[in-house]
Amino acid sequence: EDQVTQSPEALRLQEGESSSLNCSYTVSGLRGLFWYRQDPGKGPEFLFTLYSAGEEKEKERLKATLTKKESFLHITAPKPEDSATYLCAVQAEIQGAQKLVFGQGTRLTINP
Amino acid sequence: NAGVTQTPKFRVLKTGQSMTLLCAQDMNHEYMYWYRQDPGMGLRLIHYSVGEGTTAKGEVPDGYNVSRLKKQNFLLGLESAAPSQTSVYFCASSYASLYGYTFGSGTRLTVV
Predict the structure, then answer these.
(1) What is the pLDDT of residue A94?
(2) Residue B10 and which of A61, A68, A101, B22 are 20 to 30 A apart at CA?
(3) Cα B101 from chain centre
(4) Which of A43, A46, A105 sits opposite B100 (nearest CB)?
(5) Which residues does B31 contact at the CB level (< 8 Å), separation at least 6?
(6) Do B18 and B109 contact (CB within 8 A), yes or no?
(7) Full DSSP string of B19-82
(8) Contact between A7 and A106 (Cβ < 8 Å)
(9) pLDDT of B30-85, one tens digit each?
(10) A7 vs A11, A24, A108, B72, CA distance in Å?
(11) Any idea what DSSP says for residue B100?
């Protein structure tokens, strides 16, 4: 069964304290891994897509990396506005079609 | 602003009542999706569409029906609401299956 597991469930950091979020996955034939950001009361917002092991992508203070079994979202010198829930998703086959399967997310809080 | 619009934003139903959630996108995307988000369960795919006039089942389709009569609109129907359908419903669209999804802001549905 295709699964996506994110850790930790919640993370609290001080402003400027760098850290990483983990997304481990089991899927037959990974076609893409996606990272989203979700603010309270809003829909997820697309951040990155990674397609193959070794690939990296960056956006401001965020950097996503991918290996054959997991992805990391590195947050460098975070600011309070980076507080959100970060969702990881993989493209997996559901009833013969490729669809996104989401993890449960990591709730990140950055204290000023 | 271009994007995905969901109506209504909030709704309370009594058990057994029916309702339709409307999703509209103005990005000319072919693919549209309905997800539900529950605490501890993450986002789960209900139904999806790969083009006008097509629909298909996702992971949790029971109790829901959908229609895509126009490319820009994707409707989710609940024929006889049950308390287990209390959730936050998100619509999303994408250019193709391996592209990032654009999500709406969600509909919070409570069935009493």
Answers:
(1) 62
(2) A101
(3) 13
(4) A46
(5) B48, B49, B50, B51, B93, B94, B95, B96, B97
(6) no
(7) EEEEEEE-S--SEEEEEEEETTTEEEEEEEESSTT--EE-SS-TTEEEE-SSTTEEEEEESS--
(8) yes
(9) 999 999 999 888 899 999 999 999 999 998 999 999 999 999 999 999 999 999 99
(10) 9, 8, 11, 36
(11) P
CA–CA dist B109, B46 (Å, integer): 15
- A 49-108 residues with CB < 8 A to B: 49, 51, 87, 89, 91, 94-95, 97-105
Q: CA B80 to CA A47: how far, in whole Å?
A: 37
Q: Which of A42, A86, A35, A77 is nearest to A56 (CA)?
A: A35
- Write out the two tokens for A81: 């506005």
What pLDDT shows up at residue A28? 76
Collect all residues of chain A within an 8 Å Cβ-Cβ radius of residue B55: none
Instruction: Give the CA angle between residues B35, A64, A16 to the nearest 5°.
Output: 105
Tell me if A84 sits within 8 A of A108, measured CB to CB.
yes
How far is it, in rounded angstroms, from Cα B106 to Cα B99?
20
pLDDT at A65 over 70: yes
